[in-house]
Amino acid sequence: MITIPIDPILFSIGHFHLRWYSLIVTAAVILGVWLALKEAGRKGFNTEQLANSVLWIVLAGMVGARLFHVIDHWPDEFAANPIRALYIWEGGLAIWGGVLGGLTATAVLARINHWKLTRLLDAFVPGVVLAQAVGRIACIITGDAVGKPTNGPFGFAYVSPNAMVPQLGVYYTPTPVYEILMNLAIFAVLWSLRKKGLKDGILALIYLALYSFARFFIAFTSAYKIIALGMNQAQLISIVVFAISLPLLAITLLKKRQLSVNA
Predict the structure, then answer these.
(1) Are 219 and 234 in contact (CB under 8 A)?
(2) Please, what is the angle between helix 175-193 and helix 202-218, to 10°?
(3) Which residue of 36, 78, 82, 155 lies most exposed, with the fewest beta carbons within 10 A?
(4) What is the DSSP string of 79-143?
(5) Rounded to two decimals, what is the model's pTM?
């Protein structure tokens, strides 16, 4: 059992607060973009052209992540003070919203710029999942994504009054730690496969299938609001994404195998 003594606010100047959350999420985005552009260049894309468009992808991802979080927590956090929905620096990003928002923007930009979407997504996903792992460190400090109260053997308790936990001094399941380990494992798989000559789109589908499968089970440890069928928002989206990505992955692999046999 671990006590987190870190104040989520790094320092303050008047009404300005620099929070660990903003700092770490910014670092995660920079790392993810850098790696995505590096992989895109290796796959033959014009990285200068991509760099000029990547801001829109990041913004779409952030808007999607915040929107999904606000929708999920509207009754208990935002209904009484809707303006707080804009306070993204305080914490509160739903990863599935970020993934879907970024995917939508990437698809639109790929169509406008005549980029091959499946190849571009393959270049992006290692950086995306690594950024997810780093970004969850912010959640550990802020306490905004902890799981259910626990008696052990592994839990986090917070003592800073600025921590975003239901109650100080109570041990909660460290869901962000499990997500960090999950993301790092998926990154290792994607990184090891990226030069294997896979058909375009397979790497992205592997990411979606692995992430949705693992996230579904990790979400059982979370304290997210139950929406339907005894499941929370993350689990319901995970089921939908898994139900789409796994068959597509299987079909794509079978087609490649048939082409290899007939060649």
Answers:
(1) yes
(2) 160
(3) 82
(4) SS-GGGGG-GGG----HHHHHHHHHHHHHHHHHHHT--HHHHHHHHHHHHHHHHHHHHHHHHHH-
(5) 0.87
